Amino acid sequence: MFDVLAFLFEQYVSLDDYPDRNALARQLSAAGFDEDEIDEALDWLSEFDQLDLAPYAVLDRGTSLPRVLHPREASRLTAEAQSLFHYLSSSGALSSGQRELLIDQLMQSNAQLVDDEAVKRVALMVLWRQGNDLANLLIEELLFSESDVAMH
Questions:
Q1: Which residues are within 8 A (CB) of 138 and not within 5 positions of it... i.e. 6 or more apart?
Q2: Does residue 132 carry a pLDDT above 90?
Q3: What is the pLDDT of residue 135?
Q4: pTM of the entire predicted model
Q5: Long-range contacts of 108-111 (CB under 8 A, 24+ apart)
Q6: How many angstroms separate the CA atoms of 140 and 21, rounded?
């Protein structure tokens, strides 16, 4: 699913530009993605479109506090994924609401173990879907950078 999301970001600058679900599924299939991956990613996008973002926006009104992962969340994220999540949270790339939306969406995936690449891609989609251009540049740099940067 996460590879499909990255492909969509690369192909479509704006969310208004991509075709309907059936045409998009055909395009993704032609690009070599597995049908199950396509369905999971398109379902994720559809559910994300229907999310009520108001509860997440409320979190942005208060003081931003550090986020400690619940043991259930931590058990699903690799050490690298946890490090990246905390980096994005503490660097200001994600607001408190976006941070919670990111972790909620990561926990929604079917993946048993979520790696740092998945965190990058879902963070990118969260920011992209909310039209956050400045943060998108940061995430895009992380997603497409060639060098591995240690994040603490």
A1: 91, 93
A2: no
A3: 56
A4: 0.75
A5: 108/44, 108/47, 109/1, 109/2, 109/40, 109/44, 110/1, 110/40, 111/1, 111/2, 111/76
A6: 24
How remote is the C-alpha of 82 from its chain's centroid? 14
Tokens of 107: 């926990």
CA proximity to 87, closest of 131, 132, 146, 139: 139
Residue 77: phi, psi to the nearest 5? Answer: -105, 135
Could you tell me which of 54, 10, 53, 51 has the C-alpha nearest to residue 28? 10
Q: Check residue 63 and give its pLDDT.
A: 77
- Reduced to 3 states (helix: H, G, I; strand: E, B; else coil), residue 112 is coil
Structure tokens at 149: 């940067």
Question: 150: phi > 0 → left, psi -120 to 50 → alpha, else beta; which?
Answer: beta
Q: Average pLDDT, stretch 10-27?
A: 78
> Is residue 133's pLDDT more than 70?
no
Residue 49 burial by Cβ neighbours in a 10 Å radius (0-12, 13-18, 19+): exposed
